[in-house]
Amino acid sequence: MAEAAIDLNADLGEGFGRWHLTDDEALLSVVTSANVACGFHAGDPSTMRRVCALAAERGVRIGAQVSYRDLAGFGRRAMDVPPEELADEIAYQIGALQVFARAAGSRVSYVKPHGALYNRVVHDNEQAEAVVSGVLRSGAICDGPLPLLGLPGSRLLAVAEGVGLPVVAEAFADRAYTWAGTLVPRRDPDAVVHDPEAVIARAVGIARDGTVTAVGGETITVRARSLCVHGDTPGAAQLAWRVRGALASAGVRVEAFT
């Protein structure tokens, strides 16, 4: 049997001005891919530059975490954005991050939607097509088509595959799943798994066996090449280190997907 491999990604650069949410420096010592906020749900030019420089220094892949334009709601509020406008905003965010990635001697390696947009493009074909169009528009400054990171079975990944974009299936050790393999909405009190031991066990199960326990107790299949460890939870860096250690002990190789 081939050795299992998984990428560890985290949402980073989620601050604004003097306000900082994530421990970027600590997490960049653990993860293999960094989803960097591009200014629409969080982040600002100086934060983007700093995170890109740290990621490049440590050999961590840089990803553009694109969002609806929703600083006040942290990108977690439902919005209806016309497809052409959304496509332009996606390309704009990727381009902004590419400036700082290039300045750091690296590049944007992939794209991941954030928050409400991430969940919307699981089911909404029109919004998924807009995100894909935005990624395609950025191709001229990104050395070709960028991979899209998203939920297995989502419309986003299906649309991307349909136009030849690389796709990467993602899973979450600290988010609750429905029986259908979708994420439990954050408005539900059980949406986030807080017990560190449970998060670690779920991470190993996803990476090694491709399974996770849903909220109803069912064991569901979750095939993923990347595993997200959220950076905005208390003790996130320490938990990420424990997850990485547990994966290594279980015989899972931790490496970037790009």
Please give a structural write-up.
With 258 residues, this protein is of the alpha/beta class. The chain has a single domain (5-254), classed as Glycoside hydrolase/deacetylase (TIM Barrel, Alpha-Beta Barrel). Helix content is 37%, strand content 17%. It is built from eight helices and ten strands. It has helices at 24-27, 45-57, 83-103, 115-123, 125-137, 155-162, 196-209, 236-249; strands at 5-12, 33-37, 61-66, 108-113, 148-150, 167-172, 211-213, 219-221, 226-228, 253-254. Strands 1, 2, 3, 4, 5, 6, 9 and 10 form an eight-stranded parallel beta sheet that branches. The chain is globular, with a radius of gyration of 17 Å. The model has no long low-confidence stretch (mean pLDDT 94).
Identify the notable features of this structure and list them briefly.
258 residues, alpha/beta, TIM Barrel, eight-stranded parallel sheet, two-stranded antiparallel sheet, 10 strands, globular
Termini separation (Å)? 22 Å
The average pLDDT value, as a whole number, equals: 94
- Assigned CATH architecture: Alpha-Beta Barrel
Largest sheet: 8 strands, parallel
Shape: globular
The CATH H-level superfamily is Glycoside hydrolase/deacetylase
